[in-house]
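User: Fold both of these, please.

Assistant: Here is the first one.
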Amino acid sequence: MSSPMKRPYLTTLSLTPENQETPIHFINGTVDDQLFFRRNHFSYPPISNLNYWLPIKGFVLSPQWVSLRDLMKMPSKTVKAVLECAGDKRRYFEPKVFGEQWGKGAISQGYWKGVPLRVLLEQAGIREGAKEVVVEGHDFGKRTDTDSIHSFTRSIPIDKALHQDTIVAYEYNGRPLTFKHGFPLRLIVPQWYAMASVKWIRQIRVIESSFEGPFQTVDYVYYPNKENTEGAFPVTTMNVNSTIQKPLDMAVLDTGKHKIEGIAWTGGGYITKVEISTNNGENWSETKFSSDTENGYGWVKWVYQWLAAKKGEYTILAKATDSTNRVQPDTPFWNRKGYGYNAIEKIKVKIE
């Protein structure tokens, strides 16, 4: 009798709204739709693809209403990209910060297919002096800091909107977007934290000023000061980062050879090296990459062969460097809302 197939599951943080982590320690390549992390600010929106039209308006020469059918006939491209929640690894900040206590699984990657946003904007005709492109989602609700109802709406600078790989996606890993991940259309902004990749697009609007919505100027801002907004700046590009997938933290292992393996990613350039220390940083060795380092905007898989000859407790560290010479720091940049954690990866194991 054959044993049943074993598969990992999402880790639940909250149900209303639904926030679930990818089982990142058990992922080898792209993440299938069912295991892709789920990050929501509100309940899922009531939406249907029946008679779905995408308005593109604002500071343009010729406002457009594009049907889903017509959009899917336009020139498309496929982009392999990591999406990482800005709050990924939030639970590891010290002192602790409030918010969803994400572990290491608020990150996934896959192949996104869609129409470059610039195609849609050029069709509408961007007026001279345009500054930002505002993308509004169909999801909405009440925030805890106001009595008003807000939709999830974000903006990106005009140059980022016109980047060839910023796309309005309708497929993921060769299949139509599922409802929980933005069906029928979502924005994909490679190299930026995932809050920029707005789901369930309701409308796209070009503006000549700076967008001031609460998900732009209140949330997704680094506040380095506990008490005020001094030194605050917006969350945008992903930090260089890594995660040890195996062995698991606090694992008990036998003496002998063990694979230390994991992933590394960045929002700037590409990963150039990942170093490992098995003695809490006293010595470092380079790992070997088991995937292409210049693979679009995806993560890199790496592996290191470790001979654990002696019994004892070991602290294992991983440190990634990217092509812009950004290196994971010893300590994270603490900020009041807990964004962008990227301190050197650390686990402990016991050899018996």
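And the second sequence with its predicted structure:
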Amino acid sequence: MANSTGTSSTGTNSTGASSTGPLSGLRVFDLSRIMAGPSCTQMLGDMGADVIKVERPGQGDDTRKWGPPFLKDKAGEDTDESAYYLSANRNKRSISLDISKPEGQKLARKMIAKSDILVENFKVGGLAKYGLSYEDLKEDFPNLIYCSITGFGQTGPYAPQAGYDFLIQGMGGIMSLTGEPDGQPMKVGVAIVDLMCGMYASNAILAALHHRNNTGQGQFIDVSLLDTQIAWLANQGLYYLTSGELPPRLGNGHPNIVPYNVFPSSDGHFILAIGNDGQYRKFCEFSKCMELFEDQRFNTNQNRIRNRDELTPLMGEVTKTQSSSYWIENLPPLGVPCGPVNDMEGVFSHPQTVAREMKISMPHPESNGESVDLIGSPMKFSKTPVDYRKAPPRMGEHTEEVLEELLDPTDYDLSDLKNRGIA
């Protein structure tokens, strides 16, 4: 239930769009942009929440301009919808609102009054100058869940600084682990810190909702990019904390399992992910290279780790005698984990991807194909499935709709707001 009248507890919004998701009936006031915040609110939207994306008039989310590629319109020309923007803004309604102006702040507070969750990723203190910080809102809206995503968190010497995914990958240690041993440190190929931060934020919001259901109390959630990056160092972070030694950079290798790597074939490369001695023996039996199993240097995982530099090229001599498809088709039935190194075409044409509906299409009014292809949600609920109600919105597409739905007609004059650049 929202702070005031909110959305219907039946899960049907006033727009008539009925959601099957478990968060149906909740509303999110989304003041975030770029990737971490939008990926968080997209997950909430997929799970049924009504997400109101607030964008500055004439500018909008920065990522709308982060292209090419851009969605093509019906004339085959680029629209203002970049692929980057499309990746994190499904199941939202976009409104234009300038919260830097008093009128915009007043309207924002009225909409927050009818929201359950607020998500923002301004710099620390950035919303205080607009009267929209948690301290400004908590007395009037005690059951509001307010999630703030920043580069470095609300406290500490770096708190005032802006954070960016690439910088945090470096500061947070993942780049020291990624790349070839003799190469330069390498970032992950997607904005993994942003995405993981959005994941942690959505989990925290769901936990706060559970607390509110039990107590009626909202709360403030402080999530940062750097904290997130450090948290998911996981076993590699513990490698250092346990041993006091820096984990080595191993390229595609695994620090604790061998052979677990990309191997050459006669026509390319494939992945072997052998996780125990039994799987290793099955591989050697099938490949007719039992000498690699019987060799005392390689007969246990511990020994293979110690002697990985000797084993890996010997394994490569075996694997490159056959095609990738030969290994991929024959090893898994024996219980030996093996798979392809797919490019994007291979990913989205893979039968398992198709079967799991991880590529979806949604109607989009500006698309030359009249729909836009998107990546589906990985969350599969048996009782309350995610649904895809709205394609990533055009900037300000739902301003009139949302204002009519949430505000009293006497609260605003849309024509006047547009003329003055507030909406």
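The chain is about 35% helix and 15% strand.
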